[in-house]
Amino acid sequence: MSGADELQAVEKWAGTLLMQLSPAGRRKAMLDIARELRRSQQARIASQQDPDGTAYTPRKIKAKKDGKKLRGKRGRIKRAAMFAKLRTARYMQLEATPAGLAIGFAGRVARIARIHQLGELAPVAPGGPNAQYPTRRLLGFTDVDRELIRDRLLHHIAMSP
């Protein structure tokens, strides 16, 4: 299922439930769901996994100009996990209104996130050669995320007066 199809399915299902809440209640529910989804996305990115559970394609090992490798052991690359700063709340921002919620990347890091999310061709360094980046889905729904959305919505509907 593509990202747009996933969003439409969740929106259709949740839309009818959300109409039972007042605008203030909807905004509160959206904010709560957005925070939980961000935590879930951050944990998944930290574990270096796509939403379907497959591991990210590992980085290529850089080499010095004299031919020696910068990273000797394969295990050492894990200490410098990809997207360490990108997954922080400073860069992974959320927005919640009574009409909906959004989780995404803001500013200059949005470009980096888009390149990895879509697997685009981009320069390795400013003014450097272009490289085809492998697709590493930073944002996406897992089955656990869908259950989380359902549970949080039902909790807010049960708690509404």
Please describe what this structure looks like:
By secondary structure, the protein is α+β, with helices and mostly antiparallel strands. It is 42% helix and 11% strand. The protein has helices at residues 3-18, 23-46, 109-118, 143-159, and strands at residues 92-97, 100-105, 121-123, 130-132. The chain has a two-stranded antiparallel sheet with strand order 1-2. The protein has a two-stranded antiparallel ribbon with strand order 3-4. Strand 1 and strand 2 (100-105) form a beta hairpin. Helix 1 runs parallel beside helix 4 (143-159) and helix 2 packs antiparallel against helix 4. The protein starts with a helix and ends with a helix. This is Phage virion morphogenesis protein.
Mean pLDDT: 84
Structural class assignment: alpha+beta
Give me the side-by-side strand order of the main sheet.
Answer: 1-2
- The number of domains: 1
Element-by-element helix/strand order: HHEEHEEH
- First-last Cα distance: 36 Å
Low-confidence runs: none
Helix content: 40-55%
- Quick one: biggest sheet? 2 strands, antiparallel
Sheet-strand content, in percent, reads: 5-15%
Name the quaternary structure.
single chain
Q: Helix and strand layout, with pairings?
A:
Elements: H1 3-18, H2 23-46, E1 92-97, E2 100-105, H3 109-118, E3 121-123, E4 130-132, H4 143-159
Antiparallel strand pairs: 1-2, 3-4
What key attributes describe this structure?
161 residues, alpha+beta, two-stranded antiparallel sheet, 4 helices, 42% helix, Phage virion morphogenesis protein
